[in-house]
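Practice problem 4.
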């Protein structure tokens, strides 16, 4: 069942009978932690959270060793992005959750973000009405992150960097904690504090940056190195002409289906692109992007200067 993360948070936070199994698909780690906190609060005081990684041991024995079958309250976490159970372990999970549905105050919580979930687990969670495919925005993750570090102020330039990092595999909590230590004794974090603590091999998702530009989500670009604007321009090149092509087709045929835009850009996050298509003129965009490419190669200023000027056309009013 597809649900907004806030709706799921409200539902699992209700003081109702706890389910023995919760399954969250398409679920980032930070949002999963919010769900675990809500389940823990619902179970009451003295709840332990235990994460399991081993594929070799019997799930029943593992659960028994953690006192899962007592009435003390345990949350067993199975993060499918870190650990995927064997087929025999999956069937053990199924039998345990079915058998102890009414006799334990402990919970099995499963998270998956990109990996598939076994049909046996999905069917069981669906029958318990405790399976959700999580819908969220990157801004939701940033809001959660801020709530976890209330003592520090995240400045606007730092927030833009976090927005981009949130779309990679980097652990945002770890990065922000390191940035906070780097910034000490200041009570605020700026862009450079975050950049200083990123792994040396980190690279921004330039294709995603390009789509965010066309969607109006980015109205300034705070990039790491001098060559980064060129990477963004290279990613933008095919997308700009896809944008012009689709906008022209829409004007000629008086219609454009959402699936056409999704297929062209290979993303389902197209609401911003649709708004931009209504806002900008394709002839102007073609001229300005050509100018941007030419000037970025041989102009007097850095490529970032010309790229920022192009971004202004798409930035939100």
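Answer key:
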């Amino acid at each position: 069942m597809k649900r907004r993360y806030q709706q799921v948070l409200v539902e699992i936070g209700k003081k109702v009978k706890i389910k023995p199994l919760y399954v969250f698909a398409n679920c980032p780690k930070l949002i999963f932690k919010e769900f675990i906190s809500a389940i823990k609060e619902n179970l009451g005081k003295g709840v332990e959270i235990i994460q399991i990684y081993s594929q070799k041991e019997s799930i029943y024995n593992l659960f028994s060793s953690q006192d899962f079958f007592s009435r003390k309250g345990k949350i067993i976490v199975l993060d499918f992005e870190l650990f995927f159970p064997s087929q025999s372990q999956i069937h053990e999970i199924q039998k345990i959750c079915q058998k102890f549905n009414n006799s334990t105050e402990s919970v099995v919580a499963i998270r998956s973000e990109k990996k598939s979930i076994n049909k046996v687990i999905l069917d069981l969670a669906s029958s318990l009405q405790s399976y959700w495919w999580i819908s969220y925005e990157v801004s939701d993750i940033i809001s959660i992150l801020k709530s976890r570090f209330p003592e520090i102020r995240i400045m606007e330039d730092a927030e833009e960097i976090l927005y981009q990092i949130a779309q990679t595999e980097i652990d945002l909590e770890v990065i922000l904690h390191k940035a906070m230590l780097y910034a000490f004794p200041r009570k605020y974090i700026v862009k450079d504090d975050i950049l200083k603590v990123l792994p040396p091999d980190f690279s921004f998702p330039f294709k995603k940056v390009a789509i965010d530009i066309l969607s109006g989500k980015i109205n300034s670009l705070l990039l790491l190195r001098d060559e980064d604007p060129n990477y963004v321009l290279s990613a933008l090149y095919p997308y700009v002409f896809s944008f012009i092509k689709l906008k022209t087709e829409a004007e000629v045929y008086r219609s454009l289906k959402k699936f056409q835009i999704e297929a062209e850009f290979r993303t389902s996050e197209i609401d911003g692109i649709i708004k931009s298509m209504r806002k900008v003129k394709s002839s102007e965009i073609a001229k300005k992007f050509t100018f941007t490419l030419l000037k970025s190669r041989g102009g007097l200023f850095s490529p970032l200067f010309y790229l920022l000027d192009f971004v202004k056309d798409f930035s939100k009013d």
